[in-house]
Write a structure and sequence with these properties.
Belongs to the UxaA family. The mean pLDDT is 93. This protein is of the alpha/beta class. Helix 4 packs across helix 5, helix 7 packs parallel to helix 11 and helix 7 crosses helix 15.
Length: 901
């Protein structure tokens, strides 16, 4: 007989009596394991974190972990057999594995629905409170705000429209305060919400923004809008006062931007500088730990999350609650299937009823979008052993200790007013869930992770707890606590006490690992577009655009223009610019990609072959629905990967997302895109932020060293790839001239793309000139790379300006001409935007200061004026104003059917 392993050497049972064990390392096919007097022989290779049977399981019998069912056998499963369902089989099929997986699933995702027995419900008693207390060094605020663990100046964009403003203002203010002062930093809070008409999440957004303002870690807050969005400063202030948020007890100012972008940045700097003395004078004092409010999160979870790290947080939470503090459990869809455990101890029947109402509401909302709340687990979750939402939920629920009572079930962002253990409604998307906990008043976040999630929040410290020693060693520079010690024999009491002491130290000012890394991100629960299922079938069966250009009416009036442009040609393609691009495959890789590109640009890397390095930080790829929304995302990302301005491109995965590197490789194969010339890196698998940064920089260095020189070429209008958009009222003469310009470029063999939501398509001066009275339908999908020049209309399942530009730039256009009828648009990270208006438009002077071209005089000369300024931009002798000033944004739409999971 080959080597025989004792069960404890290679596997764990979550609880005695379970019929499925978890492998603590990869076990090859044929491995022999001695378990309770029998020898188990593995029929297939079982990956670390995946499960195999330890008892015979008959068809129709439940598969059990923690004594709770996570599926039903559909064929006999013998001891030693790898247990696998359909979704994990499919998820592994796109991975580059070196071993075989079962050809067929042997269990299906099925459990009995939970029904609350109200008639026999018994309220649970709380654990005995400690008679004494302990203290930490915190910032005492007004009694209604609590005590801060940090002291930050926060720059808060009310909607996505002012996100680029607060980001740029924060960048200008870095280093403007004394590092030895009591100010922990000046941080921006930019997000994606409030930028469309009548958002369905407006109330949720107002509650979150009000909560952000009064969080005890805020020393001062500047709240910024334009004054005409769907959610405004006035609405935030009115909501806060109506719901008794103590905004008068925090140093704050509401500012509406009415000047030019540069003028407003100068004003913002002045406001914040005047606050620094007052914020710095705030002092830490000894405070009871009953003022600690901790948010409990898990991200990049694996099969050991529910065995080591989550029970550890349950221990810490129970201890804190007994001292009078509060803990918040969240992620509604990640508790589906764990209801019997979650509701085993509840304060009263009303709380239990509210919990189930929130779960059912979540399920209903996702069903409107053609998906299921049970579809939450990401590709990374499944790769690391979480087969379905039931198994993921059972493990996630272990953040509540068995002795802990659920005291409150609350709405997303609803303030935590008393001590106790809370459940807060939120999606499983980590950053969206964390934002709700911060708004609720959490002054610390405890975040468990199996794969090694590196996310942090700007002004609330995050403590990272990793599930296994192997993963902790790989990511030691990005993790705070190794819960794998529990798997290796350390008692939960001993480990819990160590982490509790660490929590007090971090609350008192010791920086967490994430804070030292300077890494932080924000995302609020994103808007959802459907309020019922009435449009679902239509949306699911919307015809796919053909990709063929739209015919433009031919006439003899349009004349060719002799203008020429100096481009470069490399590898059989020509373009106006060459950049190095890092594509984050999910939101959690976005800021790391940004950190790398900043360093490369500061070093002057790539010169002169590359003009600069760029990243495209976004909010997608994890914790969102699949189907049409996921296809839209991958199509758009591939549009950028194949963009003519991109010379060298690397995909940076977080490592646990749905749209990981292997997923993107598979999508490129399906679309016929050569994925071999790209670079690939993984924050988690390559060893964390520092190591992956070194790997990415080395890859670009190698690519640049091996590159052949580009040659200069001269092109005419046939070489142009132009996108045209409009914002606000359209001047008829300007519309006509843009129509003439379009006919000239298309007639010469170039490319023009207009988004479906542009007013130009219904403006007679533009539309009549191009296609008369004929109806026009989109010829390409949102974000689709154009494969045939001519005139195209791009689908736009969004009304958001930045989301429209994000899709438009992915089509391959190298210049976007924006016809401005009101406020100028936020610029794109690398496709230049020429913002144009005319003297006839009654545009405020401060807006005219931000446009690049004001058309005046005889309209017949306007086309030439636009082409001349376009030439300056494409040949890099003129940089568009708002790009130069940092008014830049990038935001992916989720389409009509995208929804947070």
């Amino acid at each position: 007989m080959d080597v025989v392993y004792q069960f404890e050497e290679v596997a764990r049972l979550p609880l005695p009596g379970d019929n499925c064990a978890v492998a603590i390392q990869q076990l090859n096919s044929g491995t022999v394991i001695q378990y309770e007097g029998q020898f188990l022989v593995l029929d297939y290779t079982v990956m670390e974190g995946h499960r195999f049977a330890v008892k015979a399981i008959a068809p129709g019998e439940d598969l059990l972990s923690w004594h709770l069912p996570f599926g039903v056998a559909i064929q006999p499963i013998q001891p030693g057999h790898y247990v696998i369902n359909k979704t994990v089989r499919e998820a592994l099929s796109v991975r580059q594995l070196t071993f075989a997986v079962p050809a067929e699933p042997n269990f299906t995702d099925q459990i009995s629905p939970y029904i609350l027995d109200e008639e026999n419900f018994q309220p649970a008693q709380a654990s005995p409170a400690y008679e004494d207390t302990r203290t930490f060094m915190g910032y005492r605020r007004h009694a209604d705000r609590g005590v801060g663990t940090r002291n930050y100046v926060v720059l808060l964009g009310t909607t996505s429209h002012t996100g680029s403003y607060v980001n740029e203002l924060a960048a200008r203010l870095q280093g403007k305060w004394n590092k030895d002062s009591n100010i922990d930093g000046i941080v921006p809070v930019a997000h994606t919400e409030g930028g469309t008409e009548k958002p369905n999440n407006a109330d949720l957004l107002l509650r979150t923004l009000a909560g952000f303002m009064v969080n005890p870690n805020v020393g001062a807050v500047l709240v910024v809008d334009y004054g005409n969005e769907s959610v405004t400063n006035k609405m935030v202030e009115a909501y806060a006062r109506e719901h008794s948020y103590p905004i008068d007890e925090v140093l704050h100012k509401f500012v509406s931007l009415t000047g030019s972008f540069e003028e407003e940045l100068v004003k913002g700097e002045g406001i914040v500088r005047n606050w620094l003395g007052a914020v710095s004078s705030m002092q830490r004092t000894p405070e009871s730990i009953s003022h600690l409010r901790i948010g409990l999160q898990c991200g990049g979870s694996d099969a050991f999350s529910g065995v080591s790290a989550n029970p550890l947080l349950g221990w810490v939470s129970e201890e804190l609650v007994r001292y009078g503090g509060a803990a918040s459990l969240a992620e509604t869809d990640e508790l589906i299937g764990a209801e019997p455990y979650v509701l085993s101890k509840v304060r009263n029947v009303e709380t239990a009823r509210k919990f189930l109402e929130l779960v059912n509401r979540f399920k209903e909302r996702t069903s409107w979008h053609g998906t299921s709340a049970e579809g939450n687990p990401s590709g990374g979750n499944m790769y690391r052993g979480l087969y379905n939402i039931y198994l993921k939920s059972i493990g996630a629920a272990m953040k509540k200790d068995p002795t802990t009572r659920i005291d409150y079930a609350t709405e997303y962002g609803e303030l935590m007013k008393d001590g106790g253990y809370y459940f807060m409604d939120s999606p499983g998307n980590d950053l969206e869930s964390i934002a709700g906990q911060i708004a609720a008043g959490c002054n610390m976040i405890f975040f468990t992770t199996g794969n090694g999630s590196i996310t942090n929040f700007p002004y609330v410290p995050t403590v990272k707890v990793v599930t296994t020693t192997r993963r902790f060693q790989l990511l030691s520079n990005d993790m705070d606590v190794n819960a794998g010690q529990y798997l290796e024999g350390k008692s939960m009491d001993e480990l819990g006490q160590e982490v509790f002491e660490l929590a007090i130290q971090i609350a008192s000012g010791q920086r967490s690992v994430g804070e030292k890394a300077g890494h932080a991100q924000v995302q609020i629960w994103r808007n959802w577009q459907q309020n019922d299922a009435s449009q679902l079938e239509t949306l699911l069966h919307t015809p796919v655009p053909t990709g063929a250009p739209i015919a433009v009416e031919d006439d003899t009036v349009t004349m060719a223009n002799p203008i020429q442009f100096s481009f470069t040609r490399h590898r059989n393609r020509q373009s106006s610019d060459h950049i190095g691009l890092i594509v984050p495959t999910s939101l959690c890789a976005g800021q790391v990609a940004g950190m790398i590109t900043r360093r490369l640009n500061e070093q002057g890397a790539g010169k002169p072959e590359l003009s600069r390095f760029v990243t495209l930080a976004h909010t997608e790829g994890c914790g969102t629905s699949g189907g049409p929304a996921e296809s839209l995302f991958s199509r758009t990302m591939i549009g950028y990967i194949t963009h003519p301005m991109v010379e060298h491109c690397l995909l940076l995965e977080h490592g646990c997302e749905k749209t990981h590197n292997d997923y993107m490789r598979h999508q490129m194969d399906v679309m016929g895109v050569d994925a071999s010339r790209l670079g690939y890196a993984s924050i988690q698998l390559d060893g964390g932020i520092a190591k992956v940064s070194e790997k990415v920089e080395a890859w670009f260095t190698d690519q640049l060293a091996a590159a052949e020189p580009a040659e200069k070429v001269t092109v005419g209008l046939e070489g142009l790839r132009i996108g045209i958009v409009s914002a606000g009222a359209i001047n008829k003469e300007a519309g006509e001239q843009l129509g003439l310009l379009t006919k000239m470029i298309v007639g010469a063999g170039g490319l023009v793309v207009v988004p479906e939501n542009s007013g130009l398509l219904t403006e007679d001066g533009f539309s009549q000139l191009l296609f008369g009275s004929s109806p026009v339908r989109p010829s390409i999908a949102y974000g689709e790379h154009v494969r045939q020049n001519g005139f195209h209309v791009m689908e736009t399942p969004t009304t958001h300006g930045v989301e429209t530009i994000t899709g438009l730039a992915a089509t391959g256009v190298e210049l976007i001409i924006a016809l401005i009828g009101d406020r100028p648009m936020q610029a794109h990270p690398f496709v230049p935007m020429l913002q144009v208006t005319s003297e006839q438009v009654n545009l405020p002077n401060h807006n005219k200061q931000d446009v690049d071209l004001v058309l005046g005089g005889n309209p017949s000369f306007w086309v030439n004026q636009i082409l001349e300024r376009s030439k300056e931009i494409l040949e890099h002798t003129y940089v568009p104003r708002l790009y130069q000033q940092g008014n830049i944004d990038f935001q992916m739409t989720r389409g009509f059917l995208g929804v947070s999971l």
